[in-house]
Amino acid sequence: MRYSLFSLVGQALSGNRGWTRAWRHAAPKPRYDVVIVGGGGHGLATAYYLAQEHGITDVAVVEKGYLGSGNVGRNTTIVRSNYLLPGNIPFYEWSMKLWEGLEQALNFNTMVSQRGVLNLFHSDAQRNAFARRGNAMRLHGVDAELLDRKQVRAMVPFADYENARFPILGGLLQRRGGTVRHDAVAWGYARAADAQGVDIIENCEVTGIRIVGGRTQGVETTRGFIGADKVALACAGNTSRVAAMAGLRLPIESHVMQAFVSEGLKPLVDNVVTFGAGHFYVSQSDKGGLVFGGDIDGYNSYAQRGNLPVVEDVVEGALALFPNLGRLRILRNWGGIVDMSMDGSPIIDKTPVDGLYLNGAWNYGGFKATPASGWCFAHLIATDAPHEVAAAYRLDRFARGALIDERGAGAQPNLH
Amino acid sequence: MRIKCPYCGERDAREFSYRGAAGLQRPDPDAPGAQEAFVDYVYLRDNPAGWHAELWYHRDGCRAWLVVERDTRTHEMRSAAFACPLPQDAE
Fold first, then answer.
1. Largest alpha-carbon pair distance within chain B?
2. Alpha helices of A331-369 — where are they, by DSSP H?
3. Cβ contacts (< 8 Å) between A244 and chain B: which residues?
4. Chain B neighbors of A307, CB-CB under 8 A
5. What is the count of structural domains for chain A?
6. Domain that holds residue B46
7. A414: which chain B residues are within 8 Å (Cβ-Cβ)?
């Protein structure tokens, strides 16, 4: 059913008894043209764009848990395209453009809120670095504004402007950045893909990838073998494990990243604000809770929960910037497993196995990339050629020395 | 998380810095196929969900490099040993 004001009013008047399921509970067929491993944001977006842009509707998305149980529901919901390097900016900007039209495209309220992303700087050197980043963005047609201290103060009056150690000198603002409700992204893509005939198969874990003569035949799952001409991996958080089923060894370490939600407050933080002297970023949800996070824990982990040193570090960052949060109670925190690549950038590429496609290594920034990731991965699967805005995200870039290292940290994933 | 340093005893993991997988052997740059071997050495990792041998540096302690075996799903640790054998005391 199509959602609209009329459907809303009609349902309200009839006691909300007529709402139908947003997607079918599909059982696996013996064979599909394309099987996508991973029913997170990226896998569902890939399925939707395969159907919508390329007319490939004989597609299954297999998910080991329930939809939205992985990283798409574990992030801090921030979307932005404030990147520096030429390999990244066009991709993330395309993602930003897709976010801007997403609700209309999916006919689903994903609560896209372009409230602005403000990155604060605290030293002259950091101002220079942010000015350079802002200029790189503007050269690529992305919006960026460099604010001075007075302008930041007008936007974020409650920050600590008397902090002698980390004075707020200004900020780099991307007004088109903001937040999107992450669960609704998964649900919206699932519903739109399902409407095009895509089978979404939950509680179906891939246990093996059948390869005969170097050619992918399909996937073994907990619900039996599913044949496929093409198998597409979109299982960030488990990429190394699933790729190992096909004999691949990847430039990835899996780490845990924590996020936090506070008790509800009256409106306080109007934008997404990031602290430049530590690692802390915050926005406020519509329910009033502050949603915030910081660094990864820094060691390989598949635990989906973090340890206390990072909690302390994040809270220290929060209080250095906003001392008025000192009595705020944290309602909950959780961890997600992020596949950190060796240069801090993702991979969207074919693999050495025929018919096996790889989308992964999203580091700690996969959520904002969801629409463009799906768009470009669908393009790769349908045409066997990389999409122009994702052409740099090749698997062989490590061997070629064509790294995309925004942080300049080298092959040390916990520093990206 | 606490690590049993063989020199200092059980200490908070905050005293340590993490380096990554242990046991990677730097290839011989003069051997045939050295370029591929270096790509493997620098970039590719097993990244297991389960037992993982990894390097930790006791930064705020004895400054020794340790090889720690840890389960990446539970953070249980079953061993921690010096990455290099200690120089033997003179007779």
1. 45
2. none
3. 46
4. 1, 13, 75
5. 2
6. 2-82
7. 18, 20
Residue A358 has pLDDT above 60, yes or no: yes
Average pLDDT, chain A: 96
Residue A19: exposure state from Cβ atoms within 10 A (0-12, 13-18, ≥19): exposed
Would you state the structure tokens that stand for residue B2, as one six-digit string?
Answer: 């606490």
Query: Is the ipTM, as predicted for this complex, more than 0.90?
Result: yes
Look at residue B89 in the predicted model and tell me its pLDDT.
55
Is A16 inside a domain boundary? no
Q: Looking at the domain assignment, is residue A362 inside a domain?
A: yes
Q: Do A251 and B44 touch (CB under 8 A)?
A: yes
> Taking chain B, what is the end-to-end CA distance rounded to the nearest angstrom?
38
Query: CA of A255: which chain B residue's CA is closest?
Result: B72
CA gap A117, A76 in Å, rounded: 13
pTM, full prediction:
0.95
Contact residues, chain A, for B52 at CB < 8 Å: 300
Give residue-wise pLDDT tens across range A96-137: 999 999 999 999 999 999 999 999 999 999 999 999 999 999
Here the CATH number for the domain that contains residue A406 is 3.50.50.60
Decide: A310 and A297 in contact? Cβ < 8 Å: yes
E strand segments, A243-329: 252-264, 272-275, 280-284, 289-300
pLDDT > 90? residue B87: no
Q: Show residues of chain A in contact with B44, CB under 8 Å.
A: 249-251
- The residue with greater pLDDT, A155 or B84, is A155
In CATH, what number is assigned to the domain containing residue A264?
3.30.9.10
Q: Residue A37 is part of which domain span?
A: 25-107+182-251+343-415
Selected residue of B12, B41, B43, B54 to mutate for chain A interface (largest A Cβ count, 10 A): B43
Whole-Å CA distances, A55 to A31, A59, A134, A190, A381: 17, 10, 38, 16, 12
Report yes or no on B13 lying in a domain. yes
Radius of gyration of chain B (CA): 15
Tokens representing A388 are 């122009």
Note whether A402 contacts B: Cβ–Cβ < 8 A: no
Residues of A (55-114) whose Cβ lies below 8 Å from B: none
pLDDT score, position B84: 87
- Determine the residue of chain B that is closest to A297 in CA distance: B18
Q: Give dist(CA A346, CA A240) in Å, integer.
A: 13
**Do the strands A215-221 and A224-233 form a parallel or antiparallel pair, or are they unpaired?**
antiparallel
Q: Which of residues 329-368 of A touch B (CB under 8 A)?
A: 342
Among the partner residues A241, A303, A342, nearest to B43 by beta-carbon distance: A342
Residue B85 has pLDDT above 90, yes or no: no
Edge-to-edge strands of the sheet including B17-21? B17-21, B51-57, B65-71, B77-82
Side-chain-side CA neighbours of residue A40 (13 Å) = 28
